[in-house]
From TrEMBL, chains A, B:
Recorded superkingdom: Eukaryota
GO BP: any one term: tyrosine metabolic process
Protein name per UniProt: Iodotyrosine deiodinase 1
Molecular-function GO term, any one: ribonucleotide binding
Gene3D superfamilies: NADH Oxidase
Protein family per UniProt: Belongs to the nitroreductase family.
Protein backbone atom coordinates (compact mmCIF):
# COMPACT_ATOMS: atom_id res chain seq x y z
CA UNK A 1 0.00 0.00 0.00
CA UNK A 2 1.61 3.28 -1.05
CA UNK A 3 1.20 6.63 0.69
CA UNK A 4 -1.59 7.88 -1.61
CA UNK A 5 -3.64 4.71 -1.21
CA UNK A 6 -3.13 4.92 2.53
CA UNK A 7 -4.35 8.52 2.55
CA UNK A 8 -7.44 7.68 0.49
CA UNK A 9 -8.18 4.70 2.67
CA UNK A 10 -7.87 6.86 5.81
CA UNK A 11 -10.11 9.57 4.36
CA UNK A 12 -12.75 7.02 3.32
CA UNK A 13 -12.58 5.27 6.66
CA UNK A 14 -12.90 8.49 8.64
CA UNK A 15 -15.03 10.47 6.22
CA UNK A 16 -17.44 11.63 8.93
CA UNK A 17 -14.60 13.06 11.04
CA UNK A 18 -13.24 14.85 7.97
CA UNK A 19 -16.71 16.14 7.09
CA UNK A 20 -17.13 17.43 10.62
CA UNK A 21 -13.71 19.09 10.57
CA UNK A 22 -14.40 20.82 7.29
CA UNK A 23 -17.84 21.98 8.40
CA UNK A 24 -16.46 23.37 11.68
CA UNK A 25 -13.74 25.25 9.77
CA UNK A 26 -16.35 26.59 7.39
CA UNK A 27 -18.65 27.82 10.18
CA UNK A 28 -15.78 29.36 12.16
CA UNK A 29 -14.45 31.12 9.09
CA UNK A 30 -17.90 32.40 8.11
CA UNK A 31 -18.60 33.76 11.57
CA UNK A 32 -15.22 35.48 11.72
CA UNK A 33 -15.69 37.26 8.42
CA UNK A 34 -19.34 37.96 9.04
CA UNK A 35 -18.47 39.76 12.28
CA UNK A 36 -15.77 41.78 10.56
CA UNK A 37 -18.17 42.80 7.81
CA UNK A 38 -21.00 43.56 10.21
CA UNK A 39 -18.68 45.75 12.26
CA UNK A 40 -17.75 47.57 9.10
CA UNK A 41 -21.32 47.99 7.92
CA UNK A 42 -22.56 49.16 11.29
CA UNK A 43 -19.72 51.71 11.54
CA UNK A 44 -20.41 52.93 8.05
CA UNK A 45 -24.13 53.28 8.57
CA UNK A 46 -23.55 55.05 11.90
CA UNK A 47 -21.19 57.47 10.19
CA UNK A 48 -23.67 57.98 7.39
CA UNK A 49 -26.52 58.51 9.81
CA UNK A 50 -24.49 61.06 11.69
CA UNK A 51 -23.39 62.72 8.48
CA UNK A 52 -27.02 62.94 7.36
CA UNK A 53 -28.02 64.73 10.53
CA UNK A 54 -25.21 67.22 10.35
CA UNK A 55 -24.67 70.07 7.94
CA UNK A 56 -21.21 71.40 8.49
CA UNK A 57 -20.81 69.72 11.86
CA UNK A 58 -18.94 66.50 12.43
CA UNK A 59 -20.57 63.31 13.67
CA UNK A 60 -18.75 63.54 16.99
CA UNK A 61 -20.38 66.93 17.63
CA UNK A 62 -23.71 65.22 17.94
CA UNK A 63 -22.82 62.16 19.97
CA UNK A 64 -23.61 61.86 23.63
CA UNK A 65 -21.07 60.59 26.03
CA UNK A 66 -21.84 57.13 27.31
CA UNK A 67 -22.30 58.39 30.87
CA UNK A 68 -25.66 60.00 30.34
CA UNK A 69 -26.66 60.20 33.97
CA UNK A 70 -29.91 62.26 33.98
CA UNK A 71 -28.61 64.18 37.02
CA UNK A 72 -25.74 65.42 34.88
CA UNK A 73 -28.07 66.63 32.12
CA UNK A 74 -27.71 70.29 32.95
CA UNK A 75 -27.13 72.75 30.13
CA UNK A 76 -23.59 74.06 29.60
CA UNK A 77 -24.85 77.55 30.43
CA UNK A 78 -27.56 78.07 33.09
CA UNK A 79 -31.01 77.04 31.92
CA UNK A 80 -32.57 80.03 33.70
CA UNK A 81 -30.33 82.53 31.81
CA UNK A 82 -32.64 85.56 31.64
CA UNK A 83 -33.79 87.03 28.34
CA UNK A 84 -32.98 90.73 28.06
CA UNK A 85 -34.37 93.28 25.58
CA UNK A 86 -32.26 93.79 22.45
CA UNK A 87 -32.66 97.09 20.66
CA UNK A 88 -29.55 98.09 18.77
CA UNK A 89 -29.44 101.61 17.27
CA UNK A 90 -32.06 101.89 14.51
CA UNK A 91 -30.67 103.00 11.18
CA UNK A 92 -32.70 104.47 8.32
CA UNK A 93 -32.88 102.72 4.95
CA UNK A 94 -30.62 105.41 3.52
CA UNK A 95 -28.04 104.93 6.22
CA UNK A 96 -28.13 101.13 5.85
CA UNK A 97 -27.69 101.51 2.10
CA UNK A 98 -24.82 103.94 2.50
CA UNK A 99 -23.04 101.71 5.02
CA UNK A 100 -23.54 98.58 2.90
CA UNK A 101 -21.81 100.32 -0.04
CA UNK A 102 -19.00 101.67 2.13
CA UNK A 103 -18.36 98.28 3.72
CA UNK A 104 -18.38 96.46 0.42
CA UNK A 105 -15.83 98.91 -1.01
CA UNK A 106 -13.61 98.49 2.02
CA UNK A 107 -13.76 94.68 1.95
CA UNK A 108 -13.34 94.49 -1.83
CA UNK A 109 -9.82 95.91 -1.38
CA UNK A 110 -8.83 92.92 0.75
CA UNK A 111 -6.28 90.60 -0.84
CA UNK A 112 -4.22 87.71 0.42
CA UNK A 113 -0.64 88.97 0.60
CA UNK A 114 2.46 86.75 0.59
CA UNK A 115 5.08 89.42 1.26
CA UNK A 116 5.10 91.32 4.56
CA UNK A 117 6.83 94.33 6.06
CA UNK A 118 8.43 93.34 9.39
CA UNK A 119 7.15 96.56 11.05
CA UNK A 120 5.55 95.52 14.36
CA UNK A 121 1.84 95.94 15.20
CA UNK A 122 0.77 97.63 18.46
CA UNK A 123 -0.19 94.96 21.02
CA UNK A 124 -3.58 96.59 21.61
CA UNK A 125 -4.43 96.22 17.93
CA UNK A 126 -3.78 92.46 18.15
CA UNK A 127 -5.86 92.32 21.33
CA UNK A 128 -8.74 94.14 19.62
CA UNK A 129 -8.55 91.88 16.56
CA UNK A 130 -8.85 88.75 18.69
CA UNK A 131 -11.58 90.32 20.84
CA UNK A 132 -13.47 91.03 17.62
CA UNK A 133 -13.07 87.41 16.47
CA UNK A 134 -14.43 86.41 19.88
CA UNK A 135 -17.73 88.19 19.16
CA UNK A 136 -18.60 85.49 16.59
CA UNK A 137 -21.64 83.28 16.95
CA UNK A 138 -21.08 79.60 17.79
CA UNK A 139 -23.16 76.44 18.24
CA UNK A 140 -24.93 76.70 21.64
CA UNK A 141 -22.54 79.59 22.52
CA UNK A 142 -19.65 77.18 23.08
CA UNK A 143 -17.03 79.62 21.63
CA UNK A 144 -14.84 76.71 20.46
CA UNK A 145 -11.72 78.70 19.54
CA UNK A 146 -8.23 79.53 20.76
CA UNK A 147 -6.10 82.13 19.00
CA UNK A 148 -2.35 81.82 19.47
CA UNK A 149 -0.64 85.10 18.62
CA UNK A 150 3.08 84.62 18.02
CA UNK A 151 5.41 87.61 17.88
CA UNK A 152 8.52 85.97 19.36
CA UNK A 153 11.12 85.65 16.55
CA UNK A 154 12.43 82.28 17.72
CA UNK A 155 8.97 80.78 17.87
CA UNK A 156 8.18 82.20 14.42
CA UNK A 157 11.34 80.53 13.07
CA UNK A 158 10.44 77.22 14.69
CA UNK A 159 6.96 77.41 13.12
CA UNK A 160 8.47 78.30 9.75
CA UNK A 161 10.81 75.31 9.92
CA UNK A 162 7.96 72.87 10.57
CA UNK A 163 5.68 74.35 7.91
CA UNK A 164 8.45 74.37 5.29
CA UNK A 165 9.41 70.76 5.99
CA UNK A 166 5.82 69.59 5.67
CA UNK A 167 5.15 71.74 2.61
CA UNK A 168 8.16 70.23 0.86
CA UNK A 169 6.52 66.83 1.35
CA UNK A 170 3.06 68.17 0.46
CA UNK A 171 4.17 69.56 -2.89
CA UNK A 172 6.31 66.58 -3.81
CA UNK A 173 4.34 63.66 -2.43
CA UNK A 174 1.04 64.38 -0.77
CA UNK A 175 -0.85 66.78 -3.00
CA UNK A 176 -2.53 65.66 -6.20
CA UNK A 177 -0.98 66.79 -9.47
CA UNK A 178 -4.15 68.73 -10.27
CA UNK A 179 -3.87 70.56 -6.98
CA UNK A 180 -0.23 71.53 -7.50
CA UNK A 181 -1.22 72.69 -10.99
CA UNK A 182 -4.16 74.74 -9.70
CA UNK A 183 -1.86 76.50 -7.25
CA UNK A 184 0.68 77.58 -9.88
CA UNK A 185 -0.91 80.99 -10.61
CA UNK A 186 -0.59 81.89 -6.93
CA UNK A 187 3.18 81.41 -6.93
CA UNK A 188 2.96 79.47 -3.68
CA UNK A 189 5.96 77.32 -2.84
CA UNK A 190 7.38 75.32 0.06
CA UNK A 191 9.64 78.21 1.12
CA UNK A 192 7.65 80.62 3.29
CA UNK A 193 9.68 83.73 4.23
CA UNK A 194 6.50 85.48 5.38
CA UNK A 195 6.37 83.18 8.40
CA UNK A 196 9.40 84.95 9.84
CA UNK A 197 8.87 88.37 8.19
CA UNK A 198 5.31 89.10 9.33
CA UNK A 199 5.28 90.81 12.75
CA UNK A 200 2.59 88.44 14.06
CA UNK A 201 1.30 84.98 13.29
CA UNK A 202 -2.23 84.16 14.41
CA UNK A 203 -2.82 80.41 14.71
CA UNK A 204 -6.51 79.60 14.86
CA UNK A 205 -7.19 76.43 16.84
CA UNK A 206 -10.57 74.74 17.03
CA UNK A 207 -11.54 73.04 20.29
CA UNK A 208 -13.31 69.81 19.44
CA UNK A 209 -14.78 69.79 22.98
CA UNK A 210 -13.95 71.13 26.43
CA UNK A 211 -14.78 70.39 30.07
CA UNK A 212 -17.35 71.94 32.31
CA UNK A 213 -16.72 72.97 35.89
CA UNK A 214 -18.40 69.78 37.10
CA UNK A 215 -15.82 67.78 35.13
CA UNK A 216 -18.29 66.61 32.49
CA UNK A 217 -17.35 66.86 28.85
CA UNK A 218 -18.78 69.95 27.18
CA UNK A 219 -19.91 69.19 23.65
CA UNK A 220 -18.88 71.72 21.00
CA UNK A 221 -21.64 71.58 18.39
CA UNK A 222 -20.68 72.78 14.92
CA UNK A 223 -17.15 73.58 16.08
CA UNK A 224 -15.71 73.60 12.54
CA UNK A 225 -18.17 76.02 10.97
CA UNK A 226 -18.17 78.20 14.12
CA UNK A 227 -14.37 78.52 14.17
CA UNK A 228 -14.24 79.29 10.44
CA UNK A 229 -16.95 81.97 10.83
CA UNK A 230 -14.84 83.50 13.63
CA UNK A 231 -11.85 83.45 11.25
CA UNK A 232 -14.00 85.30 8.68
CA UNK A 233 -14.84 88.00 11.22
CA UNK A 234 -11.15 88.17 12.18
CA UNK A 235 -10.15 88.69 8.53
CA UNK A 236 -12.80 91.42 8.21
CA UNK A 237 -11.38 93.14 11.32
CA UNK A 238 -7.81 92.94 9.98
CA UNK A 239 -8.99 94.54 6.73
CA UNK A 240 -11.03 97.21 8.50
CA UNK A 241 -7.98 98.32 10.55
CA UNK A 242 -5.78 98.69 7.50
CA UNK A 243 -3.65 95.58 7.95
CA UNK A 244 -3.28 92.55 5.68
CA UNK A 245 -3.18 88.80 6.22
CA UNK A 246 -2.45 85.56 4.43
CA UNK A 247 -5.19 82.96 4.79
CA UNK A 248 -3.21 79.73 4.99
CA UNK A 249 -4.27 76.20 5.93
CA UNK A 250 -1.04 74.45 6.95
CA UNK A 251 -1.51 71.01 5.48
CA UNK A 252 -0.37 68.20 7.74
CA UNK A 253 1.17 70.51 10.36
CA UNK A 254 -1.48 70.11 13.05
CA UNK A 255 0.26 67.65 15.36
CA UNK A 256 3.74 69.19 15.15
CA UNK A 257 2.54 72.79 15.62
CA UNK A 258 0.20 71.74 18.42
CA UNK A 259 3.12 70.11 20.21
CA UNK A 260 5.43 73.07 19.57
CA UNK A 261 2.85 75.47 21.02
CA UNK A 262 1.93 73.07 23.88
CA UNK A 263 -1.73 73.02 22.95
CA UNK A 264 -3.97 70.30 24.42
CA UNK A 265 -5.17 67.37 22.28
CA UNK A 266 -8.74 68.70 22.11
CA UNK A 267 -7.43 71.54 19.95
CA UNK A 268 -6.85 71.34 16.23
CA UNK A 269 -5.08 73.87 14.02
CA UNK A 270 -7.45 75.17 11.34
CA UNK A 271 -5.70 78.27 10.00
CA UNK A 272 -2.37 80.07 10.22
CA UNK A 273 -2.64 83.79 9.46
CA UNK A 274 0.46 85.93 9.15
CA UNK A 275 -0.76 89.48 9.92
CA UNK A 276 0.94 92.82 9.32
CA UNK A 277 1.47 95.50 6.72
CA UNK A 278 2.19 94.48 3.14
CA UNK A 279 5.80 94.72 1.96
CA UNK A 280 6.14 97.90 -0.09
CA UNK A 281 6.92 95.76 -3.13
CA UNK A 282 4.16 93.24 -2.47
CA UNK A 283 2.37 91.89 -5.53
CA UNK A 284 -0.81 89.85 -5.91
CA UNK A 285 -2.05 87.76 -8.84
CA UNK A 286 -4.36 89.78 -11.10
CA UNK A 287 -7.49 87.79 -10.19
CA UNK A 288 -11.08 88.79 -10.72
CA UNK A 289 -13.87 87.85 -8.36
CA UNK A 290 -17.06 86.23 -9.61
CA UNK A 291 -19.80 88.71 -10.51
CA UNK A 292 -22.81 89.10 -8.23
CA UNK A 293 -25.09 87.19 -10.62
CA UNK A 294 -22.71 84.22 -10.49
CA UNK A 295 -22.91 83.87 -6.71
CA UNK A 296 -26.41 85.17 -5.86
CA UNK A 297 -29.83 83.78 -6.77
CA UNK A 298 -32.86 85.97 -5.99
CA UNK A 299 -36.19 84.32 -5.20
CA UNK B 1 -32.44 0.36 4.65
CA UNK B 2 -33.93 3.51 6.14
CA UNK B 3 -33.37 7.07 4.87
CA UNK B 4 -30.55 7.83 7.33
CA UNK B 5 -28.62 4.68 6.47
CA UNK B 6 -29.09 5.43 2.79
CA UNK B 7 -27.74 8.96 3.28
CA UNK B 8 -24.72 7.66 5.20
CA UNK B 9 -24.06 5.01 2.60
CA UNK B 10 -24.28 7.63 -0.19
CA UNK B 11 -21.95 10.03 1.65
CA UNK B 12 -19.41 7.23 2.28
CA UNK B 13 -19.64 5.99 -1.27
CA UNK B 14 -19.18 9.49 -2.76
CA UNK B 15 -16.99 10.99 -0.08
CA UNK B 16 -14.51 12.45 -2.60
CA UNK B 17 -17.27 14.28 -4.46
CA UNK B 18 -18.62 15.65 -1.16
CA UNK B 19 -15.07 16.66 -0.11
CA UNK B 20 -14.62 18.47 -3.40
CA UNK B 21 -17.95 20.25 -3.09
CA UNK B 22 -17.20 21.43 0.42
CA UNK B 23 -13.73 22.61 -0.52
CA UNK B 24 -15.04 24.53 -3.55
CA UNK B 25 -17.70 26.23 -1.39
CA UNK B 26 -15.05 27.08 1.17
CA UNK B 27 -12.70 28.61 -1.39
CA UNK B 28 -15.49 30.56 -3.12
CA UNK B 29 -16.77 31.88 0.20
CA UNK B 30 -13.28 32.86 1.35
CA UNK B 31 -12.53 34.72 -1.85
CA UNK B 32 -15.85 36.56 -1.73
CA UNK B 33 -15.35 37.79 1.82
CA UNK B 34 -11.68 38.46 1.33
CA UNK B 35 -12.48 40.79 -1.57
CA UNK B 36 -15.11 42.60 0.44
CA UNK B 37 -12.71 43.08 3.33
CA UNK B 38 -9.87 44.16 1.11
CA UNK B 39 -12.11 46.71 -0.56
CA UNK B 40 -13.04 48.02 2.85
CA UNK B 41 -9.47 48.16 4.11
CA UNK B 42 -8.19 49.89 1.01
CA UNK B 43 -10.98 52.47 1.20
CA UNK B 44 -10.33 53.07 4.86
CA UNK B 45 -6.61 53.49 4.45
CA UNK B 46 -7.18 55.84 1.50
CA UNK B 47 -9.57 57.92 3.60
CA UNK B 48 -7.14 57.91 6.51
CA UNK B 49 -4.27 58.92 4.29
CA UNK B 50 -6.35 61.75 2.87
CA UNK B 51 -7.57 62.78 6.29
CA UNK B 52 -3.98 62.92 7.54
CA UNK B 53 -3.06 65.33 4.77
CA UNK B 54 -6.02 67.64 5.34
CA UNK B 55 -6.59 70.18 8.09
CA UNK B 56 -10.07 71.53 7.75
CA UNK B 57 -10.53 70.26 4.22
CA UNK B 58 -12.33 67.05 3.34
CA UNK B 59 -10.60 64.06 1.78
CA UNK B 60 -12.52 64.49 -1.46
CA UNK B 61 -11.06 68.00 -1.82
CA UNK B 62 -7.65 66.49 -2.32
CA UNK B 63 -8.38 63.59 -4.62
CA UNK B 64 -7.59 63.67 -8.27
CA UNK B 65 -10.06 62.50 -10.80
CA UNK B 66 -9.15 59.18 -12.35
CA UNK B 67 -8.73 60.76 -15.78
CA UNK B 68 -5.45 62.46 -15.11
CA UNK B 69 -4.46 63.07 -18.70
CA UNK B 70 -1.32 65.27 -18.48
CA UNK B 71 -2.71 67.40 -21.35
CA UNK B 72 -5.65 68.29 -19.13
CA UNK B 73 -3.39 69.35 -16.26
CA UNK B 74 -3.94 73.05 -16.75
CA UNK B 75 -4.66 75.20 -13.73
CA UNK B 76 -8.25 76.30 -13.09
CA UNK B 77 -7.16 79.90 -13.59
CA UNK B 78 -4.48 80.82 -16.19
CA UNK B 79 -0.98 79.85 -15.09
CA UNK B 80 0.41 83.07 -16.58
CA UNK B 81 -1.94 85.26 -14.51
CA UNK B 82 0.21 88.38 -14.06
CA UNK B 83 1.29 89.61 -10.64
CA UNK B 84 0.31 93.23 -10.03
CA UNK B 85 1.56 95.61 -7.33
CA UNK B 86 -0.57 95.73 -4.19
CA UNK B 87 -0.32 98.88 -2.10
CA UNK B 88 -3.47 99.55 -0.12
CA UNK B 89 -3.75 102.91 1.68
CA UNK B 90 -1.13 103.09 4.46
CA UNK B 91 -2.56 103.83 7.88
CA UNK B 92 -0.58 105.13 10.85
CA UNK B 93 -0.33 103.09 14.06
CA UNK B 94 -2.72 105.53 15.71
CA UNK B 95 -5.29 105.17 12.98
CA UNK B 96 -5.01 101.36 13.01
CA UNK B 97 -5.45 101.40 16.77
CA UNK B 98 -8.44 103.71 16.59
CA UNK B 99 -10.11 101.63 13.88
CA UNK B 100 -9.46 98.35 15.70
CA UNK B 101 -11.27 99.74 18.78
CA UNK B 102 -14.14 101.15 16.74
CA UNK B 103 -14.63 97.88 14.85
CA UNK B 104 -14.51 95.77 18.00
CA UNK B 105 -17.18 97.97 19.63
CA UNK B 106 -19.38 97.70 16.56
CA UNK B 107 -19.04 93.91 16.28
CA UNK B 108 -19.43 93.37 20.03
CA UNK B 109 -23.02 94.66 19.70
CA UNK B 110 -23.89 91.83 17.30
CA UNK B 111 -26.30 89.26 18.68
CA UNK B 112 -28.23 86.39 17.16
CA UNK B 113 -31.86 87.49 17.08
CA UNK B 114 -34.87 85.13 16.91
CA UNK B 115 -37.60 87.71 16.46
CA UNK B 116 -37.72 89.89 13.34
CA UNK B 117 -39.59 92.93 12.13
CA UNK B 118 -41.15 92.16 8.72
CA UNK B 119 -40.02 95.57 7.35
CA UNK B 120 -38.39 94.91 3.95
CA UNK B 121 -34.70 95.56 3.18
CA UNK B 122 -33.72 97.60 0.08
CA UNK B 123 -32.64 95.23 -2.70
CA UNK B 124 -29.33 97.06 -3.15
CA UNK B 125 -28.46 96.39 0.48
CA UNK B 126 -28.93 92.66 -0.06
CA UNK B 127 -26.85 92.90 -3.24
CA UNK B 128 -24.07 94.70 -1.36
CA UNK B 129 -24.13 92.17 1.47
CA UNK B 130 -23.68 89.27 -0.93
CA UNK B 131 -21.04 91.15 -2.92
CA UNK B 132 -19.17 91.64 0.35
CA UNK B 133 -19.39 87.92 1.17
CA UNK B 134 -18.00 87.32 -2.31
CA UNK B 135 -14.78 89.18 -1.43
CA UNK B 136 -13.77 86.31 0.90
CA UNK B 137 -10.63 84.28 0.34
CA UNK B 138 -11.02 80.66 -0.82
CA UNK B 139 -8.78 77.67 -1.55
CA UNK B 140 -7.04 78.31 -4.92
CA UNK B 141 -9.57 81.15 -5.54
CA UNK B 142 -12.34 78.66 -6.30
CA UNK B 143 -15.07 80.84 -4.66
CA UNK B 144 -17.11 77.73 -3.75
CA UNK B 145 -20.33 79.47 -2.65
CA UNK B 146 -23.86 80.24 -3.82
CA UNK B 147 -26.11 82.57 -1.84
CA UNK B 148 -29.85 82.12 -2.34
CA UNK B 149 -31.70 85.24 -1.20
CA UNK B 150 -35.38 84.51 -0.65
CA UNK B 151 -37.87 87.37 -0.26
CA UNK B 152 -40.90 85.71 -1.87
CA UNK B 153 -43.47 85.02 0.90
CA UNK B 154 -44.61 81.71 -0.57
CA UNK B 155 -41.09 80.39 -0.85
CA UNK B 156 -40.36 81.53 2.71
CA UNK B 157 -43.44 79.60 3.90
CA UNK B 158 -42.37 76.51 1.99
CA UNK B 159 -38.91 76.72 3.58
CA UNK B 160 -40.45 77.23 7.01
CA UNK B 161 -42.65 74.17 6.58
CA UNK B 162 -39.70 71.92 5.72
CA UNK B 163 -37.48 73.27 8.51
CA UNK B 164 -40.24 72.94 11.12
CA UNK B 165 -41.02 69.36 10.09
CA UNK B 166 -37.37 68.34 10.31
CA UNK B 167 -36.80 70.24 13.55
CA UNK B 168 -39.73 68.44 15.16
CA UNK B 169 -37.93 65.17 14.36
CA UNK B 170 -34.54 66.60 15.38
CA UNK B 171 -35.70 67.63 18.84
CA UNK B 172 -37.70 64.48 19.49
CA UNK B 173 -35.59 61.79 17.86
CA UNK B 174 -32.33 62.83 16.27
CA UNK B 175 -30.55 65.11 18.69
CA UNK B 176 -28.81 63.77 21.79
CA UNK B 177 -30.42 64.55 25.15
CA UNK B 178 -27.34 66.55 26.12
CA UNK B 179 -27.69 68.67 23.00
CA UNK B 180 -31.38 69.40 23.59
CA UNK B 181 -30.45 70.29 27.19
CA UNK B 182 -27.61 72.58 26.08
CA UNK B 183 -30.01 74.45 23.80
CA UNK B 184 -32.60 75.18 26.52
CA UNK B 185 -31.16 78.58 27.55
CA UNK B 186 -31.54 79.77 23.95
CA UNK B 187 -35.28 79.12 23.91
CA UNK B 188 -34.98 77.49 20.50
CA UNK B 189 -37.88 75.27 19.48
CA UNK B 190 -39.19 73.46 16.41
CA UNK B 191 -41.61 76.31 15.59
CA UNK B 192 -39.75 79.02 13.65
CA UNK B 193 -41.93 82.09 12.99
CA UNK B 194 -38.84 84.09 12.02
CA UNK B 195 -38.60 82.07 8.79
CA UNK B 196 -41.72 83.81 7.51
CA UNK B 197 -41.35 87.09 9.46
CA UNK B 198 -37.82 88.09 8.40
CA UNK B 199 -37.90 90.09 5.14
CA UNK B 200 -35.08 87.99 3.63
CA UNK B 201 -33.61 84.54 4.10
CA UNK B 202 -30.05 83.99 2.91
CA UNK B 203 -29.29 80.31 2.28
CA UNK B 204 -25.56 79.70 2.08
CA UNK B 205 -24.73 76.77 -0.19
CA UNK B 206 -21.27 75.25 -0.51
CA UNK B 207 -20.23 73.91 -3.90
CA UNK B 208 -18.30 70.69 -3.35
CA UNK B 209 -16.85 71.06 -6.86
CA UNK B 210 -17.73 72.66 -10.19
CA UNK B 211 -16.88 72.28 -13.87
CA UNK B 212 -14.36 74.14 -15.97
CA UNK B 213 -15.06 75.47 -19.44
CA UNK B 214 -13.23 72.47 -20.92
CA UNK B 215 -15.72 70.19 -19.14
CA UNK B 216 -13.19 68.90 -16.63
CA UNK B 217 -14.14 68.78 -12.97
CA UNK B 218 -12.86 71.79 -11.05
CA UNK B 219 -11.68 70.79 -7.60
CA UNK B 220 -12.83 73.02 -4.73
CA UNK B 221 -10.06 72.76 -2.13
CA UNK B 222 -11.09 73.61 1.44
CA UNK B 223 -14.65 74.33 0.34
CA UNK B 224 -16.09 73.97 3.86
CA UNK B 225 -13.75 76.35 5.65
CA UNK B 226 -13.85 78.80 2.70
CA UNK B 227 -17.66 78.96 2.67
CA UNK B 228 -17.81 79.38 6.45
CA UNK B 229 -15.24 82.21 6.31
CA UNK B 230 -17.44 83.88 3.66
CA UNK B 231 -20.41 83.48 6.01
CA UNK B 232 -18.36 85.19 8.74
CA UNK B 233 -17.64 88.14 6.45
CA UNK B 234 -21.34 88.23 5.50
CA UNK B 235 -22.36 88.37 9.18
CA UNK B 236 -19.84 91.17 9.76
CA UNK B 237 -21.35 93.09 6.80
CA UNK B 238 -24.91 92.61 8.12
CA UNK B 239 -23.82 93.97 11.50
CA UNK B 240 -21.90 96.89 9.96
CA UNK B 241 -25.01 98.03 8.03
CA UNK B 242 -27.21 98.00 11.08
CA UNK B 243 -29.19 94.85 10.36
CA UNK B 244 -29.41 91.63 12.35
CA UNK B 245 -29.33 87.93 11.48
CA UNK B 246 -29.89 84.52 12.98
CA UNK B 247 -27.04 82.09 12.39
CA UNK B 248 -28.85 78.79 11.89
CA UNK B 249 -27.62 75.41 10.67
CA UNK B 250 -30.76 73.62 9.49
CA UNK B 251 -30.11 70.09 10.64
CA UNK B 252 -31.12 67.42 8.15
CA UNK B 253 -32.80 69.89 5.73
CA UNK B 254 -30.12 69.85 3.02
CA UNK B 255 -31.75 67.52 0.50
CA UNK B 256 -35.29 68.87 0.84
CA UNK B 257 -34.29 72.54 0.69
CA UNK B 258 -31.90 71.87 -2.18
CA UNK B 259 -34.75 70.27 -4.12
CA UNK B 260 -37.19 73.05 -3.21
CA UNK B 261 -34.73 75.68 -4.44
CA UNK B 262 -33.71 73.61 -7.51
CA UNK B 263 -30.04 73.64 -6.58
CA UNK B 264 -27.68 71.16 -8.25
CA UNK B 265 -26.33 68.12 -6.38
CA UNK B 266 -22.83 69.61 -6.12
CA UNK B 267 -24.26 72.19 -3.71
CA UNK B 268 -24.82 71.60 -0.03
CA UNK B 269 -26.71 73.85 2.39
CA UNK B 270 -24.41 75.03 5.19
CA UNK B 271 -26.30 77.91 6.79
CA UNK B 272 -29.72 79.56 6.71
CA UNK B 273 -29.63 83.21 7.81
CA UNK B 274 -32.82 85.16 8.29
CA UNK B 275 -31.78 88.82 7.85
CA UNK B 276 -33.64 92.00 8.74
CA UNK B 277 -34.29 94.42 11.58
CA UNK B 278 -34.96 93.05 15.06
CA UNK B 279 -38.57 93.03 16.24
CA UNK B 280 -39.06 95.99 18.58
CA UNK B 281 -39.71 93.55 21.41
CA UNK B 282 -36.85 91.22 20.53
CA UNK B 283 -34.99 89.70 23.46
CA UNK B 284 -31.71 87.79 23.65
CA UNK B 285 -30.36 85.52 26.40
CA UNK B 286 -28.14 87.44 28.82
CA UNK B 287 -24.94 85.69 27.75
CA UNK B 288 -21.38 86.81 28.37
CA UNK B 289 -18.56 86.21 25.94
CA UNK B 290 -15.30 84.65 27.05
CA UNK B 291 -12.69 87.16 28.18
CA UNK B 292 -9.70 87.91 25.96
CA UNK B 293 -7.32 85.90 28.17
CA UNK B 294 -9.55 82.84 27.76
CA UNK B 295 -9.34 82.84 23.98
CA UNK B 296 -5.91 84.38 23.25
CA UNK B 297 -2.44 83.08 24.04
CA UNK B 298 0.48 85.48 23.45
CA UNK B 299 3.89 84.07 22.53
Amino acid sequence: MNVISLAIWTLEKNCFIVYSGLIVCFIAFTLYHKNKLEEYYSETSKKEKMARTGTGGKARDFQDDGDEDPDLLVPAIPEDTPQIPYSPPQRSDDEILQRSREYYELMAERRTVRSFSPEPIPQEVLDNLIKTAGTSPSGAHTEPWTFIVVQDPEMKSAIREIVEEEEELNYNQRMSRQWVTDLKPFATKPVKPYLSDAPALVLVFRQTHSWREDGKKRMHYYSEISTAIAAGILLAAIQYCGLVALTSTPLNCNARLRDLLSRPVNERLELLLPVGRPHKEATVPDLQRKKLEEIMVKI
